[in-house]
Structure formats: C-alpha cells, structure tokens
Design brief:
- Among the domains are: 1-72, no CATH class; 249-350.
- The protein is built from 42 helices and no strands.
- The protein is rod-shaped and about 115 Å long.
- The chain starts with a helix and ends with a helix.
C-alpha cells in the first residue's frame, strides 16, 4: 500500500471505487485501524470481501456501524467470525437481520453470547434456525426471554435440547405457551424438572399430552401440584402409571379429586397407599367405585378410617365382602351406621 492513511481517507467515493481488490487486500492493519466511515461505506461488495482478516479486526466500531446492508451481506464467513464483540454490537440491526444462514453459522459462541437484546429481536426465523446447538446454550436468559413467539418456535428440537436448565427456567409463561409439542418432547428430564410452576400450570392439554412418561415422572412435587385441574383430567393413563409414589404422596386433595374414573382405575396399589388421608376423604362416588375390591383392600387402616359416611355408604357389596379384618376393625360407629342392610348382610359372606 503506497498511500498513507490520511491520503486513503481523503479519497472520494469515485476514487475508492477505482481501487482494485488487490489494492484493498494490500491495506495494512495500521491503515485498516484508521479507515474512516465514509471510505469504508464506499467500498463495493467485492472490495469488502478483499479485506484481510487482519484488517477486519482493526476496523473501528464507527466504521462497522457505517457498513451498508449490501456490504454486510458480502462479508465472508471467516470475516464475520473475526469480528470482536464490540464490532458485532456496532453492526446495525438491519444489517444483522440481513446476514445469511451461512454467516450466522460462522458466528462463534463468544459472539452469540455477547449479542444484545435488540440484536436478537431483529433476527429472522431462518437465522434462529441456523444457530448451532453450542450457540443456543450461550444465549443469555435476558435474550431468550426477549425472543418473539415466531423466533422461539423456530428453534429446532436439537436446539431446544441444548438449552440449559437455567435458560429453561427463565422462560416466561407467555413465551412458554408458544413452545410446540415437538420442542417440549425434546426436553431432557432435567430440563423438564427446571420448568417453573407457573409454566407447568399454564401448559395446554396438547403440550401436556406430548410429555413422555419419563418426563412426567421427573416432575418435582411442586410441579405436579401446579397442574391445573383441567390438565390433571387430561393426563393419560400411561402418565398416571408413570407418576411415582413420592409424587402421589405430595398431591393435594383438589388434584386427586380431579382424577377421572379411568385415571383412578389406573392407579397402582402402591400409589393408592401413598395418598394422603385428606385426599382419600374427598374421593367422589365414581372414584370409590373405581377403587374396586383390590384398590379398597390396598387402603391402609388409617386411610379407611378417614372415609366419610357417604363414601362408606357408596361401597358395593363386592367391596364390603373384600374388606380385610383390619379394615372392618377400623370402622367407626358412624361408618357402620351408614351401611345399608344389604351392605351389612354382605359382611356375613365376607
């Protein structure tokens, strides 16, 4: 390069356009560090592409901010990956939104992690889709929360699976409503366990249905209890079976009362035995019937003792006959008084 930096910056736009790509490539790092915004913005796409990476890293942020969209698109993957975080932050959001998927893929995790909220919100869905899984994992929680619905939905299942537990926990309830069933199904159990109770409470029935048995079993007690009664009723029998005795032991009375007859029939004996007395006490008639003889015999004497007179009166003759001596001994006087004559007669055949 024969021209001094001062001489370079004094060139007119017409003169700049006359520079060959070889001449541009011959810029020294010292010259690149002093290039003015006017000169840089006058370079053609081919001239921009001719800049050496050693020159790119020297560009002032003010010069980067002056780049046109056409110039930004012309940057090679290598050139864009060389930008330091300050230079990338200086890139106009319109220019960032114009970058190709190839350029987005070229961004390093350091660059992605340093992007600001306004930059993230400017990204196209195709650019979001282009993020590598390593890039997704470094998106700040602030930026993740700022994603628009279309942007969040654009994340692939592998990208969703790459989110950290901290990122998952940071998602707002509004944002989480837009998560697709495929995305939700892609979450590892540790990520499911990281969901906030408000997000669990606001799950749609379709989202809930997309959870695997393993994911449901991984829910913390507070998460399980956060499910709305509508969602409780929407749980599949496979989900009901997948819930652990620890989870059942933690259930609120309202949760248990929301179970349908089919769901209640799917309860395993160990799950029934783990239900709290308060939950057993408010079982409705259909649930009592759904217990059958095996389920009723599974109840502990304490659980059986907690049954109301109405519940006792709704026991079938078959259930009465199935009672163990321990259960019969646990009957309170008011429970016995609630039995009809045919139920009393059923004792004789027990």
């Amino acid at each position: 390069a024969l021209l001094s930096t001062a001489s370079l910056n004094a060139l007119s736009s017409l003169q700049v356009s006359a520079l060959s790509t070889d001449q541009v490539a011959a810029f020294t790092s010292a010259q690149a560090a002093r290039l003015g915004s006017a000169l840089l913005s006058a370079l053609s796409s081919s001239q921009i592409m001719a800049l050496e990476t050693s020159d790119i890293v020297q560009l002032r942020t003010s010069a980067v901010a002056a780049l046109t969209t056409e110039q930004a698109i012309a940057l090679s993957s290598t050139q864009i990956s060389i930008f330091n975080t300050a230079q990338l932050a200086a890139l106009a959001t319109a220019n960032l939104a114009a970058l190709s998927s190839t350029q987005i893929i070229a961004l390093t995790t350091v660059q992605v992690g340093a992007l600001g909220t306004s930059a993230f919100q400017a990204l196209q869905t195709s650019q979001i889709e282009a993020f590598e899984v390593a890039d997704v994992a470094v998106i700040s929680t602030v930026n993740l929360r700022s994603l628009l619905t279309l942007q969040l939905v654009a994340l692939g299942t592998k990208q969703i699976a790459a989110l950290t537990t901290g990122q998952i926990a940071s998602l707002s309830s509004t944002a989480f409503l837009s998560v697709t069933t495929d995305q939700l199904a892609a979450l590892q159990t540790a990520k499911v366990a990281a969901l906030s109770t408000s997000n669990i409470r606001n799950l749609s029935t379709d989202q809930l249905a997309s959870l695997s048995d393993t994911q449901v079993a991984a829910l913390a007690d507070l998460q399980v209890n956060a499910l709305s009664t509508l969602n409780v009723a929407a749980l599949s029998t496979a989900h009901i079976v997948a819930l652990t005795t620890r989870q059942y032991a933690s259930l609120s009375s309202n949760w248990v009362q929301a179970l349908t007859e089919d769901q209640f029939s799917a309860l395993q004996t160990s799950d029934l035995a783990s239900l709290g007395n308060a939950s057993v006490k408010i079982l409705n008639t259909k649930q009592i019937v759904a217990l059958g003889t095996t389920g009723l015999r599974t109840l502990t004497s304490t659980q059986f003792y907690s049954l109301s007179t109405v519940q006792i009166a709704n026991l079938s003759n078959a259930q009465i006959r199935a009672l163990s001596t321990t259960h019969i001994a646990a009957l309170q006087t008011q429970q016995v008084a609630a039995l009809s004559t045919d139920r009393i007669q059923a004792f004789s055949t027990a």
